[in-house]
Amino acid sequence: MLPSGSYSGLLTDLYELTMAAGYVQNRFRARATFELFVRALPRRRNYLVAAGLEQALDFLENVRFSKEDISYLRALPCFRQVHVDFFDYLSEFQFTGDVWALSEGTVFFPGEPLLRVTAPIADAQLVETSLLSILHFQTLIASKAARVTTAASGRPVVEFGSRRAHGVEAGVLAARAAFIGGCEGTSNTYAGRRFGIPVYGTQAHSWIMAHKDEADAFRDFLKVFPEQSTLLVDTYDVHAAIEKIIALGRKPSGVRLDSGDVLTDSLWVRQRLDHAGWNDVQIFASGDLDEDRIAALLQDGARIDAFGVGTALSTSADSPNVGMIYKLVEVDLGETVRSAAKFSQEKITYPGRKQVSRFTGEDGKFSSDVIGLDEESFEGGAPLLVPVMREGRRLEKVEKDPLVTMQRARDRYLADRARIPESILALRTAEFPFPVRYSTRLEALHDQVRQTVAGTARIG
Amino acid sequence: MLPSGSYSGLLTDLYELTMAAGYVQNRFRARATFELFVRALPRRRNYLVAAGLEQALDFLENVRFSKEDISYLRALPCFRQVHVDFFDYLSEFQFTGDVWALSEGTVFFPGEPLLRVTAPIADAQLVETSLLSILHFQTLIASKAARVTTAASGRPVVEFGSRRAHGVEAGVLAARAAFIGGCEGTSNTYAGRRFGIPVYGTQAHSWIMAHKDEADAFRDFLKVFPEQSTLLVDTYDVHAAIEKIIALGRKPSGVRLDSGDVLTDSLWVRQRLDHAGWNDVQIFASGDLDEDRIAALLQDGARIDAFGVGTALSTSADSPNVGMIYKLVEVDLGETVRSAAKFSQEKITYPGRKQVSRFTGEDGKFSSDVIGLDEESFEGGAPLLVPVMREGRRLEKVEKDPLVTMQRARDRYLADRARIPESILALRTAEFPFPVRYSTRLEALHDQVRQTVAGTARIG
Fold this sequence. Notes:
The structure is a homodimer. In chain A, 39% of the residues lie in helices and 19% in strands. Chain A has helices at residues 14-25, 53-62, 67-75, 84-91, 121-126, 128-151, 168-180, 189-195, 205-210, 214-224, 238-248, 262-275, 291-299, 311-314, 402-417, 422-425, 440-456, and strands spanning 7-8, 31-38, 48-49, 63-64, 98-102, 107-108, 115-120, 157-159, 185-186, 230-232, 254-257, 282-285, 306-309, 324-332, 337-339, 354-360, 366-373, 382-383, 385-390, 393-394, 436-438. The two termini of chain A are 44 Å apart. The interface between A and B is large, with 121 and 121 residues.
């Protein structure tokens, strides 16, 4: 079900395998560098938050081709004439490349490599599809969570969206990514066990509906969970439900509003609870919330202490995908090293191995980024890409307590968030994007490659 | 990674577990019926296609709580005061309920149960989150694929979206669901092995870019795949690429256009290939396609033989979620059976166990559906829900050849599609939705439950 243990090498697009077969059979033995980055910001996003690196590295360490995988391929019509060398290559396949990456939780922008892979060209090609699908999804959700938690301005947000995430695995990984993007925890219990992140949840409408009487439903629940009960008060009538709870005389830890006019209800409920002397009973809101509704509720003075956000978060509903790609930027043939780029109409990519340098202004906020060549360094610019894997092995040990990794990523995001300029942090689309430029040397290399290609259809 | 073998019982929202603990500890031993359905059609959808039942049943058969799962729960603060009976219940947990469902590939509408679960109330509650996440995702993708394949009006569509699906598992299951929704196959190789569905793919831009010369890249690929090569012709210049291929004198099986002005390029390429006597070389189009672009291309006379559709399909980009829910509709307490419903403002649900009857008009097209009580039958109406599991065991054996199951579901969708009225099959939102009504008896039960609740806050 979930990313761990072994991954089948077949978790890839068929063309990665046909190309790998082409490289092996033609004895094309280059070492290639691919960079994974986002071409443009999706709708309503001013920045993105890197997430998913742990699972990406786990995939690279563990991807293998089983005998059954190879038999399946050999039986496909397109592989019938492929030489046995290729299947031997697959049976011995282990990823042995070097990887640089942005740490999880890092804020980044279009054009900036999230990951850079250098490996024998066939190997680097085979891992493309899964690397993209792992990093794309968690980055998408962490970036959405960043907006949602920013809108909640300090109030806790819990991720509630497993049921509408794109499958069981997506639910677990959405919980992980949402935590990196600033959420307090999740309703997904497996994610709690697996990643150590806090889990939340008490009762649904079905609990109330299963009981003949709403008051009985509340009482019976408090009996089992005397200290941690958030009672759901909107199944029939919010006012009546609150009166029943007060009449029971047992104070719950909170109440939850999941439908209706949450603003008005929250004001009434707060007043009624305070009047009963229950100032410390929290009001929790959920039900089709997203960053816009949360911002509007708080703007209008809603008395809500915490939010549960589901579908909008776990599917990144307003922008359910990002144009993330994995592009060849360098081919090292031993005697010559060629920089590779693509110039087909709207889909231009820059050649060469890159590093991103981030500059900070006098106000302590991020001021600009420069995407340069790997070997360049810029005074005052902090390099963002760090080495994470050498010859197929991770450079950092996996933490025994997974919460350490999670907390570190979340802290990194929160620290970065404090330094994002106001206009970029805002929910509305920024008039001027965050300033990111290519270095002079990178622009020069780009022009040079372009001229060669234009003249001779050759690269580098 | 993928749905098979065992599933952790923790793959659920925490509140399912707290409610289950409440039922066990309070000795609330009802048998409950829950129905899983869609409240309203998502944007730009006139109908939905049921998918994911195989994985849902696999989940129900295999979900278990391991010792580690239970230790994790016991250590959570909220469970500290819960009686050991509950943890014993979990350690012995196996799903023993009865399930009725729509067969995969069935076209359905809001309010119609896609699945109906009858089981001890705690059991039925625990499986909610995963059942929703499994059925929601595949139904979402099959329904999107239905639109895309309808737009292609008979031309093959291949699902290409693994890299932007919401994780590795989502990529595999999107491929499965897209096949049910009429796709010809997928680029996801694992889905090919796992479900027996056809796989497609040949080369990416990186293959071209890795070679010094585009002509060499084509030639070296044709050498390895002489019979099945779709060459990618848009890396630098489409016209030049086609001329190079013709000059090589080796006929590929197809060429692929992935960017730029696909309409104009397809017309030129077709003419040039025909002029070379290569009338049987297919033109394949891909690159940010969806149902609207496909319909527009064909409308404008593009000469495209097959389509590859990625992100838009694998994320159902224009409507990345559906309001699918799992609601309590009946509580059987032994001596009394109560029907349950919910009346909180905008979120009304109908009580009672339901069946859907579908009527066909004289033109052979579907004319209307009636949602009635399970025991009702309607002359001329075909019942859509069928029993699929009894006491936790599947009623039909899992097919040895998974393609049999897949083909059956796809054929069912294609047969249903032929009977969907024109206005509902159209890509644009239908002015009048497909006629679905509740039976008189169901409306009467609904009113009766409502009156009781309104008067006394009691149900049934």
